[in-house]
Design goal:
By secondary structure, this protein is α+β, with helices and mostly antiparallel strands. The protein contains 9 helices and 14 strands. The protein has helices at 2-29, 49-56, 60-66, 107-114, 118-124, 185-201, 258-270, 281-293, 298-301, and strands spanning 40-42, 79-81, 96-100, 138-142, 151-153, 160-162, 165-166, 173-175, 182-183, 208-210, 232-235, 274-278, 318-319, 328-332. It binds zinc ion.
């Protein structure tokens, strides 16, 4: 009887926590909450909805909605509403959560369940003796994401995702399976912005197909090893002649659109938030040659591209990995909200 009661208590706590999370998330999306939080931006030459979204760290879908726009094409000198994202305002320590000890609980099991380390559980609960836990005792935990912010936790090969945002189809990006399209808000917004930027500059550019990011709470996503913490994405390549691909298709030097692919990768890399990109070595050649043709020097390209140093040389943000002839895999850096991230 006591056991059932404790279990119920735990469930109630968890539900309260989840409700709190949902509430703070919807508060963050509520544009009308406070009018003094609006800010405006006058569009300059050379800017697109994509670069503006990136600059203010907001979503393309948000910009479209706030400004009642139907496409990403905007005239210069238009004034746009650009509310700065909740996400970028100071990272706060995750809120404490209480776990009530049930039969069979150990610090190890609790740590695993909440995605924190045993050492952390010990540090937050110095008064408790891990070898003498008693039913009903309260364990204090600081769960990442309890404040409603998205958090990439741990390694991309074995981490988790808290408060992930499902990437939706936006101009320039077509999401194939929303259930596998969860990333941190920062990652999702960056991708949307990059897709919109290409579409704004080349109105005939097809949408890219978004393959996997992560599942809702992160963790294993077959057949991938990574894609576990909301910082990885698979994307199709732009095909020459603005051919819209129905699915992932192997590219060749002849079909690969070096102009648009280079532009998108450069925009993402310039955001400072890309750790690396896997692109088949054969496709790096047209990227390299195109970049030279528009004025980059080999020295400038050295940190960006592995080519022409050979596919086995570990160098360059854009580098070879097997299986990337039909899609690019992008790994984003750890963001300021992320925890234990590496
Ligand atoms: Zn991948």
């Amino acid at each position: 009887m006591g056991q059932t009661h404790k279990r119920l208590e735990f469930v109630v706590l968890l539900v309260a926590l989840l409700l709190g999370m949902a509430q703070s998330a919807s508060a963050a999306n509520d544009v009308n909450a406070e009018s003094d939080e609006f800010s405006y931006h006058q569009v300059n030459d050379g800017e697109t909805l994509g670069t503006i979204a990136m600059h203010y760290q907001v979503g393309i879908d948000q910009l479209l909605e706030w400004n009642d726009l139907e496409s990403v094409h905007i005239e210069p000198e238009t004034t746009l509403v650009v509310k700065s994202s909740e996400e970028v305002r100071g990272s706060s320590e995750p809120l404490p959560v209480i776990h009530v000890i049930r039969r069979g609980d150990t610090f190890e099991g609790i740590a695993r369940r909440y995605g924190v380390t045993i050492r952390q559980v010990q540090r937050w609960n110095r008064r408790l003796n891990p070898r003498r836990l008693q039913l009903g005792q309260q364990v204090r935990l600081h769960i990442p994401g309890a404040d409603g912010k998205s958090v990439s936790y741990g390694r991309a090969n074995g981490g988790r995702l808290y408060n992930g945002v499902a990437m939706q189809t936006t101009p320039g990006m077509r999401v194939r399976n929303v259930a596998r399209s969860y990333g941190t808000r920062r990652v999702v917004q960056l991708l949307q912005a990059a897709g919109a930027d290409v579409q704004a500059r080349w109105p005939d550019a097809p949408d890219l197909i978004v393959g996997s990011l992560s599942v809702r709470n992160g963790g294993r996503l077959r057949p991938h090893r990574s894609h576990q913490s909301g910082r990885d994405v698979d994307l199709t390549y732009y095909h020459r002649g603005n051919v819209a691909l129905p699915d992932f298709r192997n590219m060749s030097v002849e079909t690969f659109d070096a102009v648009k692919n280079w532009h998108m990768y450069k925009v993402l890399i310039d955001s400072g938030q890309v750790e690396y990109m896997f692109v088949d070595y054969r496709l790096q050649k047209p990227l390299y040659e195109y970049a030279l043709s528009i004025g980059y020097t080999p020295e400038e390209l050295e940190p960006l591209l592995q080519y022409p140093r050979g596919r086995n040389v570990s160098a360059g943000i854009i580098r070879h990995s097997r299986g990337h002839l039909n899609h690019v895999h992008i790994r984003f850096t750890c963001g300021p909200q992320d925890r234990n991230c590496h």
